[in-house]
């Protein structure tokens, strides 16, 4: 009996090794391989976001996450005519609402999604929206489902960042203590330790504000926004974009965190806090083609890294090379970058350290101008990036963001939509 058992174990191990080898061989490497179309590709058939609202002052300030989610789902079904009963799983990226799975499940049911459709939530802080896409993509790749929804949502008005609490034995560890510090402190640490002066931060901020204002006035942002109805009112335009921002007005702003040297972060060169939600419908290429769903993009993959907590903002510097190497790509292969602007201090340092042309990054403005609802942003960047590639005709999108507590994440997507 022992030799039979050993033989079975040996076969089992061999099967695992062969499966891993097959998986490794299936990973596309190089631009041509990434752009190739295969029946088992994970594709995106719909990617939209709500209009954004200023936290505590804007159009969504009194709208809790469950109400926002229900409105987003109803609007999605109305526009796509997707039968909710066909959905096989849902993942919601969100950070701070209490009992997030309960409220997400309730919102799905209220939107008309049948009770047999499961749901989960994921919280990796600023990358939560990207992680929702990653979760659904992995489930499809594993053969567990063939159709799912990835959502990012946050109400920073009603659910601001809670203060993390540590026991003394943990908080006495310096890096552990750094990991729970306010994000403004990490911005100042990057500015101090990597020598990013206030003037440079304001220059990058002005670019974000200017680009967002131009994109909004030209109707470009409207292409990525899905109007939603809240309490009888249709919400379809961002109320977060500030007009008439100049270098003079940015320079005049007082430090937002004077308690931390060098005190260079201001309300004008940091991402705003706000409210909003975004959604991607994901399936296999085979199913999309069979059921006549439009294919607008393809999921390639993502990478997540850890960095020093006090320098949280530098996460993209490690995450971007990791995801590019994973798929045998070069920076020159990427047509468009959506790199989250948590703070101008970290954004400026990341852009210059990575050596990416600013003409390819956040071409319609970023979170400094349009705001950063933390659970939403990772999904929003995909809706934003794919919409821009559809206009420009480019092929590859790379999204990235720093992540609270000291991490970074990045994702690669292929544009498959036509103008």
From TrEMBL:
Pfam family, one: Thiolase_N
Gene Ontology CC terms, in alphabetical order: peroxisome
Reaction(s) catalysed by this chain's protein: an acyl-CoA + acetyl-CoA = a 3-oxoacyl-CoA + CoA
Domain Thiolase N-terminal: 42-285
Gene3D superfamilies: 3.40.47.10
Pathway it works in: Lipid metabolism; fatty acid metabolism
Keyword tags: Acyltransferase, Transferase
Alphabetized CDD domains for the sequence: thiolase
UniProt keyword Transferase, yes or no: yes
Annotated ranges, domain Thiolase C-terminal: 295-413
A single MF term (Gene Ontology): acetyl-CoA C-acyltransferase activity
GO biological process per UniProt: fatty acid beta-oxidation; phenylacetate catabolic process
Active site positions: 126, 372, 402
Similarity annotation: Belongs to the thiolase-like superfamily. Thiolase family.
The name this protein goes by in its record: 3-ketoacyl-CoA thiolase
Source organism (scientific name): Pleurotus eryngii
